[in-house]
Amino acid sequence: MEREELLAAGDRNLADTLRLYAATAPGAAIEDDGRLVLVSTSRTWPGPYHNGALRLDRHVAPADVLARAEAFFAGRTAGYCIWIAAHADEDLERAALAAGLPAVSETGTPRLAIDHDVPPGVVPDGVSLEEVADERGRLDYLAVTVDAYADSSLPRHAAEAQLSTVGALAGPGVRAVVAHVEGRAASAAMSVASGAVAGIQLVGTVPEARGRGLGELCTRWALHAGFASGARAVVLEASEAGEPIYLRMGFTEISRYRWCFGPPARPPA
Q1: Which of 11, 121, 247, 248 is found 20 to 30 A from 263 (Cα to Cα)?
Q2: 3-class SS at 120?
Q3: 226 Cβ neighbours under 8 A, 6+ residues apart
């Protein structure tokens, strides 16, 4: 795929991932006209996947994005994130900063992509890979996610909202896997396929099982699941810890996502 096509398809896949969480989380709210996607799945956690605004059509004026986001999230949550795609949202970022929405980070998160499948990893003795298909699998995936992200950016209540039903992990275009070590859930990854692209989400390994290659093993499984769905490329947003692993697997950086945090700061009365 050409870079511009890949970037646009990746943005659409990200939007479909937000739609998935909104469709499967009880009490979630979504406003989606195909040009701007506004999603709220948590009353308390302002992370971009839980309370986020993603512009798909760059003809939507930044002022309209900010106004609609402020109106949508008012009364739902104390904070939210405006997604800033480095390849397309420079005007939106300038407007958000000028309006008083601070930047969450200067560098953001790398968007990585790969256009070919890779060999499956070797499953070590004592380790089994199980695809999520029922409530037991969902609870295993949730347990891994809670432990894996406990020292990072996803509190338990937010993970529970994001993975509250089996449909968030298993369904049309959605597949997830959990690695078990001697019967205990230890690592996980999922794939959300839509159109020409599949996106890998929520890769995590519990602290006591790290350093054994389980995260890469699950990522390879999710990567293959994405290509098996018909995707021509697989994308992901890489954490600082995961980026070296993904680059070694053959992913390359194609852009970055940053965020501006709302609502805008108001001057004191």
Answers
A1: 11
A2: coil
A3: 191, 193, 198, 199, 200, 234
pLDDT classification of 268: cutoffs 50, 70, 90: low
Mean pLDDT in the chain?
95
- Say what the pLDDT of residue 264 is: 84
Q: What DSSP line would sit under 63-87, residue for residue?
A: HHHHHHHHHHHTTT-S-EEEEEETT
Residue 269 to residue 256: CA distance in whole angstroms? 37
Q: Which domains does the chain have, with CATH numbers?
A: 3-106+258-262 (no CATH), 127-255 (3.40.630.30)
* Apex 190 CA angle, 185 and 193, nearest 5: 165
pLDDT number for residue 267: 57
Strand partners for 113: 235, 252
Tell whether pTM > 0.90. Answer: yes
Give the pLDDT score at 266.
Answer: 62
Decide if pLDDT at 152 tops 80. Answer: no
Distance between CA atoms of 36 and 56, rounded to whole angstroms? 6
Secondary structure class of 31 (helix, strand, coil): strand
Please give the span between the terminal C-alpha atoms of the chain, in angstroms, as a whole number. 53
pLDDT band at 106 (very low <50, low <70, confident <90, very high): confident
Length of the chain: 269
| Angstrom distance (rounded) from CA 127 to CA 118 | 20
Phi/psi region, residue 267 (left: phi>0; alpha: psi -120 to 50; beta: rest), is beta
